[in-house]
Task: inverse folding
């Protein structure tokens, strides 16, 4: 995973690339030699067509992801408003159905209400504010843990060690990135849960901190590899100039490299954020999955121990509830709408990271 | 020319591969007897409730010894998924830990021409669990409702008269619940909170019955509900009283059968219309003494002996 | 005298000593940060293996789960994962390789290809659960595949496409331009050049990408939860074709999730053993890719 983005984001680093400007000069496919049958030429045309088609497949897929996810969510906005039913009728119906209990969907309520009662028999409420807060707070805490470690490790790998140690570290990072998220979740559930309870005297070990530690470990590899790339992209002349002035490596890193590579490092952090926001299984199993705004206590005051509160994220909500939401019900569509929300969030984060990286390349 | 030949064969292979990929979904619907390709065996598709999936699997396994010519294929996913599969015809038996909704019956009738047939195959006594060192021994449904329902007033163990929980971290009650569309969640809401009520936000909503028990085993402050079959030595099952002051009842086979234990629910299997003979035979076996013994072994409550 | 001056000039001043101390501290801190990644990896693997070891055996891999998934092995889940990986590989590999060929050999550096690049990055960044929603909406429902191996594999294939595209591109880019020019000069068409020169010379890199895709696919849970994986299915042991494309299957990652959260009364080592098998498979596959890469880099001729 880490390598994939790494090469994707820094293609110019990847060995001698066929020089760009000359591309146009490659031979055009004209019927050149005698002896090549029309069929062969047609075949070649066909395969080139297929190649082009595959080339744009990524665009097609991204669009169709948005399209199909939105398609399932869209009817929410076009539902006719039905008058609220009599309470007697409500009791008889299952909340997942298109019963009159299902109110007209309001986007404002969706985004700004913290009440998530998708299967209530009396008053269905689809407010994802608590889930958004959950996602953002877990991600933020994960980044507070991961950024120093990720960027520190990137500096270490790029500047402080060489040869064998460097290779080994990179391999370890790659392996760390390969651990499946369900295994992380399992570790959070079985190993971290009791540790956190005992260590911090927390009433429950499945909480924000647990999820954040897992997310930090999961997003560190991508930060290290992108961070290392951006440090590597700083011209060696900068380093040489610094060393010639008698700077130590630490001074070099602190005064020269970090400022010079700060955009790239920011992009690395952003990609880590994208990873953390989108993670599903680990947070499903480790954050406690409670609809809860962690910063507020039951009586409405600020909760200083919020990192020990169980929270629920957008991704985990979809994973937990989609299985039994009946197709076409309002609940089902709202879950798809959460998908649209997640898609948009990660899209913006990734786009920003990409723009930053492009900006660096241009210079 | 080998070059062009190769190019051509590459194209050919690619086209075939793609065509194969693309035409697959268009293929005909698989009939019930399809299965894993063995011709002599009749397969029965049994889909549904996660509460019942272990049980259904144990039945299927045992039945393979009784009747080798019939192979029952079990998969879980939830009561809702089982019912959906029953309606669209991919399941021949649906496991359901709740009764069918009227709308579901309508849909099934529209599709298959007759009402789905219901078979009660056992009971599940929903038990209230706390940590094994927890001093509490019994609880009333009223107190449970105050703990769980929206607007309920009990948030601290001390409100229930519990002073010190061995190994406990503070006084807060950690409410453990299930994800909001599981059959267990619905049943608990119906009997404890009341149909029109809702759960208090902030409960830990887990995705599996076992998950609930495991978490409680590791969390001294927690309380939660799950099937009787999921009990382990690390947790304590509370006796439940219908009302404050009434005697609290331990969930067990006799108390479930004589209906003194207040929160027990039946488990069902549904077939679309009257089942064909080989399925009827399977269901008969499930409800026979041999089948019901397995119910008991897995930890659920068997049907009363008639 | 000169030596004396030099000595004085380059003698350790308090400032230099302070500088060097800082340097040492910085190195230590950064080193510890790097170590903070190795240690969890080792601890996790060690702990899982320690807990799961009593159950792991050949029989564990080749027998079906029995007794309500409490006893027996993991054959049906393992086979399901093999199927999902295999089918998604068949779909993703050709598309991914050809997309990379397009991006590296055909595409010019213009706005359109910037968008393609962006799309590839975004495809890698879309949350796995959104891929699951997409798979459900597009394949299961719209294309009427139902929950099946095929629908799940297609979802996984699209999700892991960027892995193949990225490493294939890197491999293609590392073929020197002179190779291509030589080929064009003897009158070969662009496709002939790619087919005869570029692809054979970069096959190792492509293979690495494919292997990485396998590792990624094997570990994913969320995308298959709603598109094709089930809790339990009984299949005959030892039959590699026990699943059909249009049937649902079990999968190792899903099985770990199920056993952890649903199955009661399972022996304590069981989920650990499943986790070890899953982690082992993924890491082994990844290690193969790494070894392959190192080996091929060492014998590269240019």
Result:
């Amino acid at each position: 995973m880490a390598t994939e983005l790494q090469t994707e984001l820094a293609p110019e680093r990847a060995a001698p690339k066929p020089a760009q400007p000359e591309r146009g000069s490659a031979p055009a496919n004209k019927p050149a030699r005698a002896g090549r049958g029309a069929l062969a030429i047609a075949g070649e045309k066909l395969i080139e067509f297929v190649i082009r088609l595959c080339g744009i497949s990524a665009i097609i897929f991204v669009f169709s992801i948005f399209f199909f996810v939105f398609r399932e969510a869209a009817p929410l906005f076009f539902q006719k408003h039905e008058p609220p039913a009599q309470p007697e009728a409500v009791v008889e119906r299952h909340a997942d159905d298109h019963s009159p209990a299902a109110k007209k969907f309001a986007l404002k309520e969706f985004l700004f209400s913290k009440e998530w009662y998708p299967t209530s028999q009396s008053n269905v409420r689809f407010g994802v504010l608590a889930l958004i807060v959950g996602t953002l707070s877990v991600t933020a805490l994960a980044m507070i843990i991961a950024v120093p470690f990720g960027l520190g490790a990137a500096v270490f790998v790029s500047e402080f060690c060489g040869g064998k140690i460097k290779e080994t570290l990179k391999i370890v990072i790659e392996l760390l990135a390969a651990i499946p998220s369900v295994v992380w979740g399992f570790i959070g559930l079985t190993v971290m849960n009791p540790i956190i309870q005992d260590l911090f005297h927390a009433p429950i070990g499945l909480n924000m901190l647990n999820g954040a530690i897992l997310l930090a470990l999961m997003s560190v590899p991508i930060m290290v590899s992108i961070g290392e790339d951006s440090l590597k992209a700083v011209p060696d002349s900068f380093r040489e100039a610094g060393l010639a002035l008698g700077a130590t490596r630490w001074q070099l890193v602190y005064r020269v490299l970090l400022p010079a590579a700060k955009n790239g490092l920011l992009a690395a952090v952003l990609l880590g954020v994208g990873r953390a926001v989108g993670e599903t299984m680990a947070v499903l199993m480790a954050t406690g999955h409670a609809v809860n705004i962690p910063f507020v206590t039951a009586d409405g005051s600020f909760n200083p121990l919020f990192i020990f509160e169980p929270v629920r994220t957008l991704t985990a909500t979809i994973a937990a509830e989609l299985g039994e939401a009946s197709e076409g019900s309002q609940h089902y569509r709202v879950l798809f709408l959460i998908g649209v929300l997640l898609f948009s969030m990660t899209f913006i984060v990734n786009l920003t990271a990409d723009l930053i990286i492009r900006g660096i390349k241009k210079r | 020319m080998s070059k062009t030949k190769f190019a051509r064969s590459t194209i050919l292979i690619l086209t075939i591969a793609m065509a194969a990929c693309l035409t697959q979904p268009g293929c005909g619907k698989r009939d019930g007897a399809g299965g894993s390709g063995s011709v002599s065996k009749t397969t029965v598709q049994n889909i549904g409730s996660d509460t019942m999936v272990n049980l259904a699997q144990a039945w299927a396994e045992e039945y393979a010894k009784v009747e080798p010519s019939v192979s029952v294929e079990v998969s879980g996913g939830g009561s809702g998924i089982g019912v959906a599969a029953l309606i669209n015809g991919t399941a021949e038996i649906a496991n359901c830990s709740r009764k069918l909704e009227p709308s579901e019956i309508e849909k099934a009738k529209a599709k298959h021409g007759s009402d789905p047939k219901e078979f009660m195959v056992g009971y599940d006594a929903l038990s209230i669990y706390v940590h094994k060192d927890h001093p509490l021994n019994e609880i009333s449904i009223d107190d449970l409702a105050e703990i769980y329902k929206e607007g309920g007033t009990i948030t601290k163990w001390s409100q229930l008269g519990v002073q010190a929980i061995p190994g406990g971290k503070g006084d807060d009650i950690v409410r453990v619940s299930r994800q909001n569309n599981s059959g267990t969640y619905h049943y608990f809401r119906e009997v404890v909170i009341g149909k029109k009520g809702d759960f208090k936000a902030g409960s830990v909503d887990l995705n599996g019955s076992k998950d609930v028990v495991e978490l409680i085993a590791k969390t001294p402050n927690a309380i939660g509900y799950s099937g009787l079959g999921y009990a382990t030595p690390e947790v304590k099952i509370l006796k439940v009283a219908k009302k404050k002051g009434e005697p609290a009842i331990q969930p067990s086979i006799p108390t479930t059968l004589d209906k003194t234990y207040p929160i027990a629910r039946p488990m069902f299997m549904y077939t679309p219309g009257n089942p064909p003979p080989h399925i009827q035979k399977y269901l008969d076996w499930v409800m026979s003494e041999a089948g019901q013994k397995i119910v008991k072994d897995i930890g659920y409550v068997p049907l009363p002996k008639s | 005298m000169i030596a004396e001056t030099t000595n004085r000039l380059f003698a350790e001043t308090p400032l230099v000593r302070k500088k060097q101390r800082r340097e040492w501290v910085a190195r230590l801190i950064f080193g510890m940060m790097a170590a903070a990644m190795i240690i969890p990896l080792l601890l996790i693997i060690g702990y899982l293996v320690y807990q799961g070891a009593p159950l792991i055996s050949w029989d564990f891999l080749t027998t079906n789960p029995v007794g309500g998934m409490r006893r027996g092995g993991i054959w049906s889940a393992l086979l399901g994962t093999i199927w999902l990986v295999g089918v998604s590989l068949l779909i993703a590999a050709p598309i991914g390789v050809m997309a990379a060929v397009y991006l590296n050999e055909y595409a010019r550096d213009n706005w359109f290809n910037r968008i393609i690049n962006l799309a590839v990055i975004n495809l890698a960044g879309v949350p796995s659960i959104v891929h699951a929603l997409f798979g459900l909406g597009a394949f299961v429902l719209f294309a009427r595949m139902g929950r099946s191996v095929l629908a799940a594999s297609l979802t996984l294939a699209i999700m892991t496409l960027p892995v193949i595209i990225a490493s294939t591109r890197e491999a293609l880019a590392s073929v020197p331009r002179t190779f291509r020019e030589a080929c064009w000069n003897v009158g070969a068409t662009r496709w002939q050049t790619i087919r005869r020169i570029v692809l054979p010379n970069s096959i190792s890199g492509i293979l690495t990408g494919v292997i990485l895709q396998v590792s990624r696919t094997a570990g994913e849970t969320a995308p298959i939860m709603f598109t094709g994986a089930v809790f339990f299915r009984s299949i005959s042991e030892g039959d590699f074709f026990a699943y059909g494309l249009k049937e649902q299957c079990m999968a190792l990652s899903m099985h770990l999730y199920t056993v952890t959260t649903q199955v009661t009364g399972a022996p304590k080592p069981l989920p650990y053993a499943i986790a070890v098998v899953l982690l082992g498979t993924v890491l082994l596959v990844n290690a193969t890719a790494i070894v392959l890469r190192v080996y091929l880099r060492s014998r590269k001729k240019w």
Q: What stands out?
A: The radius of gyration of chain B is 24 Å.
